[in-house]
Design goal:
mainly alpha
């Protein structure tokens, strides 16, 4: 007789371990690539005189005295300056009060409970997609809120985490209005276009129409992916019952129960009224702070800029820099108003205890963010991402054909380059000089190519650990993971969202190629063709 083979249990590395291995691997890889003199030369444009500048980049070896010195001396700086850290902590404080007050449960009961699962998923993905108008705020705000809403509907909160994250990550190229991306990318698009036409102009509204339509399309497709493919894998949440109390007999005073219910409803209504008034006041103050030329207004605008869009979305905009803090204040103020109004909070001690309880499990997340910040910083220091993007640029530049075939290959290559160089601005600085002129001569407009970059960028945004906010996704997956004996690792997290990545990538390709063939306007008086 043959003995039955025992099924070996899969060994999963904790994400903390994986990040440590990635850091060590980066050190070793930089040493190997420096030995073989891995480098590239790529072209950029001097915006002042449109001169082509040749840039040669080599790998920085970190497995030597100088590399280790950099790693040790910059560890604290890399951690403190890591954007997700401050954003996560500020929003965690705000949401701890907001959720602890009971307001999020009330909203779920009164508003979101009336929506179908598909409608709620669509709403979350759509809001997540358009949230990219202001940097990466969607990762910080929407993931915990989506998890809480799904949990309140007896759905697995992991589905909510994935829904919000995918909506933001794979919808990075779209929104319903212009934002910081246009301000960052247009200078490179304009410089590259002027190599062909010295008077070419790219306006901030050039991609407005295509952004609005694709936001809706991606939200619809994303809803189908979540509800039909991803959500069924996680199932529903089961409530644990205390078996010891099952056989106990409880005498209920119906009159007392009814009175308690009336008191609760009264307190909820009063709390809701307080929260509504408080939210109107604080949101009104924030809106007033971005209106120029009124008494004491414009506090959050960069008044050194000439146009309003650059004042609010420019590099030195106080609105952009302080938006996370503003949203945290909104949650804090409305949470406090509801909490005291509904008698959930009776004094300041109740507030601090609620914060302590909700923030009690952040230690592991802080460690995870620390390691992720080190990994991303040292990988950037090696120049590997820049070199790979430069190689992609040279491959595109060497292709002898144009039109749709060149457009298709460019989309795929940009999406691959994004895995190693995740900033759209950094990629476009390298890629615009080799993509815009030949495709412009093939009758494809620079404005359309700028949107192509954003679309390609979003295809792989969610599956690269080099994305600064990927660590937030992994952290929340483990926070809401019911199986505490088995953590969700980095590669398992990528596996969870791979169906979303593949289907959305195909959707992006069909949208871009189809839009170009049909020739619909992509913005006011702007078309895919020149």
């Amino acid at each position: 007789m043959y003995k039955k083979k025992k099924h070996l249990k899969k060994i999963r590395c904790h994400p903390i371990t994986t990040y440590i291995l990635l850091i060590l691997g980066t050190f070793i890889l930089s040493w190997i690539l420096s030995l073989v003199k891995f480098q590239t030369t790529y072209s950029t444009i001097n915006a002042a005189d449109l001169a082509i500048v040749q840039n040669t980049v080599t790998v920085n070896n970190l497995l030597n005295f100088d590399g280790l010195k950099y790693f040790i001396s910059n560890a604290s700086r890399n951690f403190i300056s890591f954007a997700p850290l401050s954003m996560f902590l500020m929003m965690a404080i705000g949401l701890s009060i907001f959720a602890g007050s009971g307001l999020i449960d009330l909203l779920s009961k009164k508003i979101f409970s009336k929506m179908s699962n598909k409608a709620l998923t669509f709403l979350i993905i759509f809001i997540a997609t358009i949230s990219t108008i202001i940097n990466d705020i969607g990762y910080i705000i929407l993931i915990p809120i989506a998890a809480s809403l799904y949990k309140s509907r007896k759905r697995n909160p992991l589905t909510g985490v994935i829904t919000a994250f995918c909506g933001v990550a794979f919808g990075t190229g779209t929104t319903i209005f212009v934002g910081s991306s246009e301000v960052d990318l247009i200078p490179y698009t304009t410089s590259a276009a002027r190599l062909v036409d010295s008077a070419y102009h790219v306006s901030l509204l050039s991609n407005l129409f295509i952004m609005i339509i694709t936001s809706l399309v991606l939200a619809i497709v994303g809803t189908i992916i979540i509800e039909k493919i991803i959500a069924p894998r996680f199932g529903k949440v089961k409530e644990k019952k205390d078996l010891a109390l099952e056989n106990e007999i409880e005498v209920i005073d119906l009159e007392e129960q009814e009175q308690d219910k009336l008191n609760q409803e009264y307190n909820e209504k009063r709390g809701s009224r307080y929260a509504f008034i408080a939210s109107l006041i604080i949101i009104g103050l924030f809106i007033y702070s971005v209106i120029p030329n009124l008494p004491l207004s414009g506090m959050l605008l960069d008044m050194n800029e000439k146009t309003y869009l650059r004042q609010i979305f420019g590099e030195n905009s106080y609105f952009q820099d302080g938006f996370t803090y503003m949203m945290s204040l909104v949650f804090i103020v409305t949470g406090l108003a509801y909490g005291f109004g509904s008698r959930k909070f009776k004094n300041d001690r109740d507030v601090f205890e609620t914060c302590h309880e909700n923030l009690n499990n952040l230690g592991g997340i802080i460690v995870l963010i620390f390691l992720a910040s080190q990994f991303i910083a040292i990988f950037k220091k090696t120049n590997i991402g820049i070199i790979l993007t430069g190689i992609v640029a040279n491959i595109i530049d060497s292709l002898s054909f144009g039109g749709i075939p060149l457009l298709f290959i460019s989309i795929i290559l940009i999406a691959l380059a994004n895995i190693f160089l995740t900033t759209a601005q950094g990629k476009w600085m390298i890629l615009a000089p080799v993509i815009v002129p030949p495709l412009m001569q093939s009758n494809i407009s620079p404005q359309f190519l700028q949107f192509v970059l954003r679309a390609s960028d979003s295809m792989t945004k969610g599956i690269t650990p080099l994305s600064a906010f990927f660590v937030i996704f992994v952290a929340y997956l483990n926070m809401y993971n019911s199986n505490k004996d088995q953590s969700i690792g980095i590669f398992q997290a990528i596996k969870m969202i791979m169906p979303y990545c593949l289907i959305i990538s195909v959707t992006w390709l069909l949208l871009l190629i189809g839009w170009y063939i049909i020739g619909l306007p992509i913005g006011p008086s702007v078309y895919p063709t020149v």
